[in-house]
């Protein structure tokens, strides 16, 4: 088995997210979804009648969890940036004051890479009269949970704040060759969840029971090879390259948005499905996105940009490009009305 | 991606379990537990107020699922063999006639390798007045789901019978180097479960969302390299070697049991925890088990037997070995009273 590597990886993340070795419990999951399923289940076990609040731009696994776990779920509106709208959150909390709150906070939404303002979420909860023993926060850090700590001006994800769990994917920024993730929660919470499973001579508090033994080795190796400074450099490179992509798109007259703490560039959905497939672009409605990871170089971005601009000139010979102001804000839209 | 391999593996299992290509839906899971979580969730979505019935020797993931999904769960007694006790099942069904039944049927229990009698379970349901639109059967074939089809006298797991889903592990008998499994259900059921997830351009009906891309390749390779006949031979070898182990244990005066359709040998728990750890024996109460897989040769069994017999002679110099008749039946017990 590779348990010592798993513990090493977890300790690394516990330090990153500021929780003492004896106070945390965690494991290497099979993917980001398992982290969300786990965090939300821990929240439900802590507050069996709690209501799950999540912004509508949360990952679909959050809503899947609500359905699986038979939890009441309230969708909260988002700002144009993709962040949770705390005014709407406040209104919905006040309408449900009688029940504890379980909140999914996005550290990087799937589509726009938006980072919910954790501090404002906590302030909103407390402002609505939810004391710390009446709410549970799960931070879905699928992608940016690992990048954010290396961005100086980013709000901090830390167990010094009243959060219950954080999860992050291991096959994205860290580049593990199989889907995996890291899930960390407080020891006090997990005791509610685990049950004795004698034949394994251990208490199972995971979702999946079985774990991939290779994943911790890959994670451990990468964390140690790159180190804290290596990650910091890669994060800077990703953010720089993402800015380059956004600027070049805008310079070519294409609507594009990049959130401040993000390396996810959102832009006008290409009209050619072959182009979308070839570049494996994830699309939603009128927008597509590119997540700029360490493997994406300026050269690769240039190839992409050239191909996009060349193809696009044939898509809009007779008609106008669509307005995507509703998706990315009118200051980012390049349609005839807003450009 | 490795989707074509995944489809190839699923088609192989669909043929094995007798369901037409267009009638089934399935995927390669991350482990046996994910198969159970999926099968039971499908059952719950088909019968939202259904009661989950499972024998008390079912895998713990079944009871974990009941808790996660907030389902009413009724534990059914077992026979000494580890099989579900259909007399008790009948009594419990009759006591809950007003609600549909969701049943976990074990094709090889975790500890004793017992195979629930699927035909008798169906008969019992129908005998209690549960028509086919009032029950859902999930077959947990973690280990033996793949071995059973190759045992001539074994009752058949088949979608020609009124079952809803079957799952099997891929890292046990097939020997895939990472935890994985196969889950197959009826297309008609899964439509209830799936929901549109636009940004992936697909409908997600899995538990985990992400899947390991290597697992289907390993599975496909092994299925094709060994083929149906190769598996049949390996199953015969495992059953033969398991009989050898059981016979040698009994010959050495050690209580031991082997179910007819199984390669899991259950015997008196060794008294030395170092011995247990070194041989990675799974123990429960007074019993331990050895699951005889294709990698376990007669030579390896002899090394194990010699070491066990030699060590055991030092454990019981002054006291008698324990009676394990309650676990494995008095005909299999070798304590002073029963030998």
UniProtKB/TrEMBL annotation, chains A, B:
InterPro entries: Group_II_Decarboxylase, PyrdxlP-dep_de-COase, PyrdxlP-dep_Trfase, PyrdxlP-dep_Trfase_major, PyrdxlP-dep_Trfase_small, Pyridoxal-P_BS
Entry annotated with the keyword Disulfide bond: no
GO BP: carboxylic acid metabolic process
GO molecular function: carboxy-lyase activity; pyridoxal phosphate binding
Keywords: Decarboxylase, Lyase, Pyridoxal phosphate
Pfam families to which the protein is assigned, alphabetical: Pyridoxal_deC
The protein's required cofactors: pyridoxal 5'-phosphate
Lipid biosynthesis is among the record's keywords: no
PTM annotation (N6-(pyridoxal phosphate)lysine): residues: 172
Family indicated by similarity: Belongs to the group II decarboxylase family.
Listed PANTHER family: PTHR46101, SERINE DECARBOXYLASE
Protein name: Serine decarboxylase
Organism: Gossypium lobatum
């Amino acid at each position: 088995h590779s348990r010592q590597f798993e513990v090493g990886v977890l300790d690394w993340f516990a330090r990153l997210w500021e929780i003492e070795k004896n106070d945390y419990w965690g494991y290497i999951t099979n993917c980001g979804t398992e982290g969300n399923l786990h965090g939300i289940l821990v929240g439900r076990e802590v507050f069996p009648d709690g209501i799950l609040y999540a912004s509508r731009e949360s990952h679909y696994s959050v809503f899947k969890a609500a359905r699986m776990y038979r939890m009441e779920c309230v969708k909260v509106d988002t700002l144009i940036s993709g962040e949770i709208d705390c005014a709407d959150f406040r209104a919905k909390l006040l309408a449900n004051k009688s029940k504890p709150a379980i909140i999914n906070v996005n550290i990087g939404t799937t589509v726009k890479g938006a980072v919910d303002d954790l501090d404002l979420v906590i302030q909103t909860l407390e402002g609505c009269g939810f004391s710390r023993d009446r709410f549970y926060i799960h931070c879905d850090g699928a992608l940016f949970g690992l990048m954010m700590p290396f961005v100086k001006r980013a709000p901090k994800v830390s167990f010094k704040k009243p959060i219950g769990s954080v999860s992050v994917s291991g096959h994205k920024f860290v580049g593990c060759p199989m889907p995996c993730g890291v899930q960390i929660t407080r020891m006090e919470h997990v005791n509610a969840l685990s049950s004795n499973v004698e034949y394994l001579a251990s208490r199972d508090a995971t979702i999946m029971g079985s774990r991939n033994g290779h994943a911790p080795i890959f994670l451990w190796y990468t964390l140690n090879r790159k180190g804290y400074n290596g990650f910091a450099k890669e994060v800077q490179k990703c953010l720089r390259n993402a800015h380059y992509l956004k600027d070049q798109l805008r310079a070519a007259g294409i609507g594009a948005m990049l959130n401040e703490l993000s390396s996810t560039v959102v832009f006008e959905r290409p009209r050619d499905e072959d182009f979308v497939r070839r570049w494996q672009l994830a699309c939603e409605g009128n927008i597509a996105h590119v997540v700029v990871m360490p493997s994406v170089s300026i050269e690769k971005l240039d190839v992409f940009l050239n191909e996009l601009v060349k193809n696009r000139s044939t898509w809009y010979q007779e008609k106008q490009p669509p307005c995507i102001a509703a998706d990315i804000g009118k200051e980012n839209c390049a349609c005839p009305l807003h450009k």
